[in-house]
Amino acid sequence: MSTSTTELLKGAAELFPDEVVTQAHVRHLELPDGAGRFALITLDNGFDHTKPTTFGPQSLANLDAALDQVEQEATAGTIVGAGLTGKPFIFAVGADLKGVELLKRHEDALAIGKGGHDVFKRFASLAVPTFAYYNGAAMGGGVEAGLHCSYRTVSRAVPAFSLPEVFLGLVPGWGGCALLPNLIGADKAVSVIIENSLNQNRQLKGAQVFELGIADALFDGADFLERSLVWTAGVLNGSVTVERPEVDRGEGWDRAVARGRSVADSKVHGAAPAAYRALDIIAAAKDGDLQAGFDAEDQALADLIMGGELRAGLYAFNLVQKRAKRPAGAPDRSLARPVTKVGVVGAGLMASQLAMLFLRRLEVPVVLTDIDQERVDKGVGYVHAEIDKLLLKGRVNQDKANRLKGLVSGVLDKAEGFSDADFVIEAVFEEIGVKQRVFAEVEAVVPAHAILATNTSSLSVSEMAAGLKHPERVVGFHFFNPVAILPLLEIVRGEQTDDASLATAFAVAKKLRKTAVLVKDAPAFVVNRILTRFMGEIQNVIDEGTPVVAAEKAVEPLGLPMSPLVLLELVGPAIGLHVSETLNRAFPDRFTVSPNLAAVVKAGKRGFYVHDSGTPELDPEVAALLVQGDTVLTEEQVRARVLDAVAQEIGLMLDEGVVAEAQDIDLCLITGAGWPFHLGGITPYLDRAGVSERVNGKPFLAPGLASVPE
Fold it and tell me: Cβ contacts of residue 702 below 8 Å, gap of 6+?
């Protein structure tokens, strides 16, 4: 261990006293076929797989100390090779992000990058070949530690393998940007580092790691380490030859980087620097100068650690990983009642999606009802077809498919279907009178303990329950479309909803694997209220005279997953109009009803765009419908107006107690609307841009929560 590395890691460790420390255990074994004595380093933090192994400063120091021993043995000729592996199910999942959050100075951030590089580079400089055995989940620095080794094997059972740094607002900073393209080529590296990260942190399986060429051999999980050691012996004694394709360092490399920039532009629209910094390093790695690449990684890592994007990304990560698991304001879970049968009122697309979700996650009888047999049969048929898709993909076996199909049924008579149901959810037409009538019919036939849930997106849960004998058991259970994909579930407490009903709703949400957020019974709740204000301001500036394309382009710097009017198309203009009308009735001073949107809906158009060329273009028929004023705003003016409106609305929602804290607003937007992870939702962005202060006189979040600590 060099003195400078020791000092770096010691200084970093002092900044991070609560690190979960990973040990690096060295043991020796004789390789098969007389290949010789081998040193195997095992990374283990002393916990089971539910607390994955990470690298903080002390953990890196421990690995460094283990390498001191291995280096001496390699130099002395007492070992023929060295290997690195992890505890059961986990190789290593990268840097300990809790420590990164605490850093306040650029030089401390730089030390983290240099410390990791200094330790990992030692694998490549040993006097014997080195081997990484990816036995389990490997991410970030875990992947990078293995990239510094001479050879790699991977288990077919590895469920998650990635370089997710760009997703969080960093770059792979311990060798990933420099080493990976030089190992597998720039194009494949761009897919792993940029494309997968920006596609919601897509993970690779073990077999894909091998197919990409990251690993040299693939073995089954049951005897992975034993097989890897036999293979290692073969490599060392020459009976196994490792061949790797030649890397294209010509135009192919340049095309790959250009493709990466195109991917980044389409995902973040230049609004987040991490992907572009990573691509700059990949571009420079073309000449194979690894040390220059490592130095560039150190600098990029330090710059990004001290920037707002990473802090917002870590904030978002903590929201999704921690706050989502302990919903603010949820009642004691011991109050929850068991749910052994579910009823679904309606058999349309949304109701059928709900039936499928309840069926798959709860594995209890699910009964659909509707107004005629044809609709009921169609709903049950949809569920059967979805089960068949799971069977075809190998997600369920034939027995499970048969059992699930046997659990779903449809009836016309609610008394027949719901008399023993514990939880009934309605997904009928979004009109208060219709929903009140449905609940009155359901209440007359369900048991006294049954929960009555509504999937309303904007109507008052309290008003829906007002005419019932037991309004205390009515709860809002608002899913987002598509139900199987978007994690958010807004759980709405009506004025008379009791704790037992609410606790049951949260318990069901957990079994459904949804991110549940408790919200007050206020018009349109959280996501739809914010998005409607956001979209409403876009529509207002269009109505006043700003061209459609300019209005849309104005919010591109937010890096949203899709433009506002493409989102409107996904939601459906009629639904968007309905929600805006609901909010206009509640808050006429802030929510408008766009006459142009009303005209589009009246004309039966499914959106503002046509997609004949593969990219959205304004539909000429819609353009002919638009009646605009003569006030044309610049993109900056549009963006300021939209962000001011959103900041005002969020401030009012927090004042009203719609949710417990601003963090819940962000959690809802990330998990229910696909709001960019790198923004941390919306409130960190509004704080960083000074909008919160300008509109509300104060930031939404405390210093250091989604920003560099003061």
Answer: none
Query: Per DSSP, what are the bridge partners of residue 492?
Result: 476, 519
What CA–CA distance (Å, rounded) separates 26 from 79?
12
E strand map for 210-341? 217-219
Q: What is the pLDDT of residues 547-573, one digit of tens each?
A: 999 999 999 888 787 889 988 888 889
CA distance linking residue 153 with residue 229, whole number of Å: 10
If you compute the radius of gyration of the chain from its CA atoms, what whole number of angstroms results?
Answer: 28
Would you tell me how many other CB atoms lie within 10 Å of the CB of residue 626? 16
Distance of CA 669 to the CA centre of its chain: 12
DSSP 327: -
Residue 398 CB-density burial (10 A; 0-12 exposed, 13-18 middle, 19+ buried): exposed
E strands, 247-371, in order:
342-345, 366-369
Angle at 646 between CA 528 and CA 325, to 5 degrees: 55
- Considering only CA atoms, which of 131, 118, 34 is closest in space to residue 74? 131
Vertex 241, ends 121 and 293: CA angle to 5°?
25
Rounded to whole angstroms, the Cα distance separating 264 from 386 reads: 33
Q: Where are the alpha helices (DSSP H) in 103-223?
A: 106-125, 141-147, 165-168, 176-184, 186-190, 196-198, 206-211
Query: What DSSP string runs through 347-382?
Result: -SHHHHHHHHHHHHHH-S-EEEE-SSHHHHHHHHHH
Give me the DSSP letters along 14-65. HH-TT--PPEEEEEEEEEGGGTEEEEEEEEE-SS-TTS---B-HHHHHHHHH
SS3 452: strand
The CB-side HSE value for 433 (13 A sphere, CA atoms) comes to: 0
- Given a contact cutoff of 8 angstroms between Cβ atoms, the answer to whether 139 and 317 are in contact is no
Phi, psi of 312 (to 5 degrees): -65, -40
pLDDT digits (tens, 9 = 90+) for 620-630: 999 999 999 99
Give the Cα separation of 193 and 186 in Å (integer).
Answer: 10
> Per the structure block, which two tokens stand in for 24?
């690096």
Residue 251 neighbours by CB distance under 10 Å:
9
For residue 3, pLDDT beyond 70? no
Note whether 26 and 39 are within 8 A (CB).
Answer: yes
DSSP structure string for 460-514: -HHHHHTTSS-GGGEEEEEE-SSTTT--EEEEEE-TT--HHHHHHHHHHHHHTT-
Reported confidence tier of residue 279, pLDDT bands at 50, 70, 90: very high
Q: Are 262 and 270 in contact (CB under 8 A)?
A: no
Nearest by Cα to 229 from 43, 71, 83: 83
- Cα Dmax for the chain: 86
DSSP for 239-253?
Answer: SS----PPP--SHHH
Nearest alpha carbon to residue 206 among 161, 143, 147: 161
The order of strands in the sheet holding 81-86 is 23-31, 36-44, 81-86, 130-134, 151-155, 217-219
Which residues contact residue 559 at a Cβ distance below 8 angstroms, ignoring those fewer than 6 apart?
267, 268, 269, 270, 271, 272, 676, 678, 679
End-to-end alpha carbon distance in the chain: 33
Q: Helix, strand, or coil here: 518?
A: strand
d(CA 520, CA 552) in angstroms, rounded, equals 31
Q: With pLDDT > 70 as the criterion, what percentage of the chain qualifies? A: 98
> Between β-strands 609-610 and 617-618, what pairing exists: parallel, antiparallel or unpaired?
antiparallel
**pTM for the predicted model, two decimal places:** 0.86
Beta-ladder partners of 519 = 492
Question: Residue 70 is encoded by which pair of tokens?
Answer: 């291995």
What single-letter amino acid sits at 442?
V
Amino acid at 197: S
